[in-house]
Amino acid sequence: MASKATNLLLAFSLLFATCIARQQQQQNQCQIQNIEALEPIEVIQAEAGVTEIWDANDQQFQCAGVDFIRHRIQPGGLLLPSYVNTPILAFIERGRGIQGVILSGCPETYEYSQEQQFSGQSERRGERLPFDEDRHQKVENLNEGDVVAIPTGTTHWIHNDGNTELVVVVFFDTQNDENQLDEYQRRFFLAGNPQAQSQQQHHQQRQSRQQSPQITRQGRPQQQFRNSNNIFNGFTVELLAQSFNVDQETAQKLQGQNDQRGHIVNVGQDLQIIRPPQTRQERQQYQHQQGRRTRQEQGRRGGRSGGWSNGVEETICSMKFKENIDNPSHADFVNPQAGRIANLNSFKFPILEYLQLNAERGELRPNAIQSPHWTINAHNLLYVTEGSLRVQIVNNQGNSVFDNELREGQVVVIPQNFAVIKRAGEQGSRWVSFKTNDNAMIANLAGRVSAISSMPVDVVANAYQLSREDAQQLKFSQRETVLFAPSFSRGQRKASAREGFGLSEVLRVLF
């Protein structure tokens, strides 16, 4: 009895020590002295597109517990169905398409049949359904500016039904509580043979990984596309055939062993899918039909209070999975001379409360500045979609850990509470940010509503060794709130471009 108690105590001690060590390791990963602009280190080729993968071993990604990839899907391409062990936020950077998100246990509400009266009877008799019949869960039209939220372990697929390349950037929160596997992003394919056409293209700038081997994740499965088959490949053909009630030849095709197309396959533009209407007239007609169908259904159930609904189809199954962050109604800060910023949080996009994630869309006019600030309760991954953005990031020791230009397609991680300032280049800039809190909040350092302007004048004067008059000027001279229009001459701008993005120059503009 004593030995059992001792063993139990040792087990609990080991578990506790492991949890503490893991927490300390995660905290140490954010002791960052230098941050770099990141680009993809791998390009995975497939039949109808490529997937570009950033280095999840980079210290920035480890600190924030995130991962990042970019899909480039050619017209007619289909990103094969898969699911991931982390929640996902995706942003449609360019192009258009269709996406399906398969929720376990939810009904297939999109259906079509030329023989409606026949389908129910044939299913009950176990007969084969007619070829002109289909039903599936709802699909969504994807357009530029859409943010798509996908819960952990949820099957999803994307089809490019447009005439141009569809570019989708995907953010993974690997330290989310929903991920109970490990700290890695793992993709499970339901179809195809992802390793068939994949190839690796290393970039030369990833020297930081070699310089800091003690902070890399050992054994990180970077080969998520290159060395993987779909999950049916691990089952026996016999059991698959019995499970799906099909012949063994069909079961073998499920395994995809002879499929050489990779993870993005060419299916052309004639993919037969029951989809939502696209034109305004079609949408109005669809909404009218849906409203009439809902009223008829409520009448059959005896009104709203009576009936047999269990609530599932009214919550999870009817949940909204996409929101267009470029919609002007989402703008939270607007300055016609400087730009605008839109935050997509759980109040505007309720599913984000479940995912514990947040998205931000920013746009700055040429040489405009966003107020220096810090994010109170989240890490922040910043991805530039257009133009260039000069960024400075400062840690808790007051040291600059990043002072450089971010170009289109580059990424930088801004750890929680690190101070940051952004200024657009000569052509302006647009970006999208992903944050690890569904209601991420920022605190501004300059502007009409900021830490400095909210302090008493005497506190400001004594803190910075200023006269009371200078302290008042520091508090009240900047009348804009978050987005600051450029306020210096063309000659000063050219000089600043030659000399760099100096802190003293920025302070003159801000205050």
Give an account of the 3D structure.
The protein is an alpha+beta fold. It contains twelve helices and 25 strands. Strands 16, 17, 18, 19, 20, 21, 22, 23, 24 and 25 form a ten-stranded antiparallel sheet that branches. A seven-stranded antiparallel sheet has the order 1-2-3-12-5-10-15. Strand 20 (380-394) and strand 21 (400-407) form a beta hairpin. Helix 5 packs across helix 6 and helix 9 (457-463) crosses helix 10. Residues 15-26, 115-129, 198-221, 292-313 and 489-501 have low confidence and may be disordered.
Main sheet record: 10 strands, antiparallel
Q: Quaternary state, please?
A: single chain
Looking at the structure, what is the overall shape? elongated
Strands, count: 25
Write down the Rg: 27 Å
**Helix content percent band:** 10-25%
Distance between the termini: 72 Å
Counting helices, strands and paired strands, the structural category is alpha+beta
Total number of helical segments? 12
Q: Approximately what portion of the residues adopt beta-strand conformation?
A: 25-35%
Compute the average pLDDT: 80
